[in-house]
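Researcher: Hi, I'm a grad student and pretty new to this. My advisor asked me to get structures for two proteins we've been looking at. I'm not sure of the right format, so I'll just paste the first sequence and hope you can take it from there.
Model: That works fine. Here's the first sequence with its structure tokens right after it:
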Amino acid sequence: MNRSKQAAAAAAAAIIVVGGAGAAVAGASGDDDASDTPIQGPALERAEEAALEETGGGTVTETEVGDEESYYEVEVTLDNGDQVDVQLDRDFTVVGSEEDSEAETDD
């Protein structure tokens, strides 16, 4: 009986160690975009259309559902190379847009 308790405790400890290692690896990657979910299906077409109308053209280079600032985010690269993040609500209404600060610092 004592041996089975030890085996169960060892198994539980192994599960905790493996789970902790996985969390450490995920956290150590430093990639904030690791959990980003791209917009898909009919919503993608509507989001792209709304974003391109807001920016006056360009190319959609990235999309995200559940962005921290809005329901949808669409990144548009303009013809001059500038990038603009367009924030949309669930109804594909523009609720904000801003030039991507990362694009500003890349040389």
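Researcher: Oh nice, that was easy. Here's the second one.
Model: And its structure:
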Amino acid sequence: MDTRWLGRCDYLATFQEMKEFTASPANGGRDQLWICEHPPVFTLGLAGRAEHVLAPGDIPVVATDRGGQVTYHGPGQVVAYPLIDLKARHIFVKEYVFRLEDAVIRALDRFGVTGQRVAGAPGIYVRVDDPFSHAALPQRPQRREAGSAAPEPDFTGLGKIAALGIKVSNHRTYHGVALNVAMDLEPFSRINPCGYAGLQTVDLSTIGVSVSWDEAAHELAAQLERRLAL
């Protein structure tokens, strides 16, 4: 996989470049991983509802074609965009989502943090009061009876540290995952993050982990390269 380091780049321009890269037959099956951060921007997924954007103020709101609701991107956040051919890699979409989350969990583990999955809610979370605990989370995904309804997400005691939103077109992926490292978290209070009112958002800095953007970016990129190469 060819990893590209884009630095800080405009969200809308990057979104358009991802779409063009994915749609272009000239790419000849090339897979890439783009690593970047964005200036402040709120992004709405295909399921996004305007009422979840509470008070954007001077931060632009951009409608996109990824899955999910509303989220925030800003300086101090590592954003990773895998642009890969799932069919060529024999990866199903659900497995792809699992691998993205697994890469974040493994990256967090390198910094001593235990990333958690929550049933019914994509993304990665941490225990706010003890982000280093390895104890099993009661809200974790568990096997369900066939045909049973998905559980309502329970965020009690948790903060979201990584958001995930993807798009798959003709077996090729774009959009991706965002890991909060050392951000101004105030803009998250202007939205219902991922469509959930009151969902707390955290970064590595606020849970007591001092890691530079470069360190976190290189670790996440390395984990994505490994997990998507299998």
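Researcher: Is there anything I should tell my advisor about the second?
Model: You could mention this: The first strand starts at residue 2 and ends at 8.
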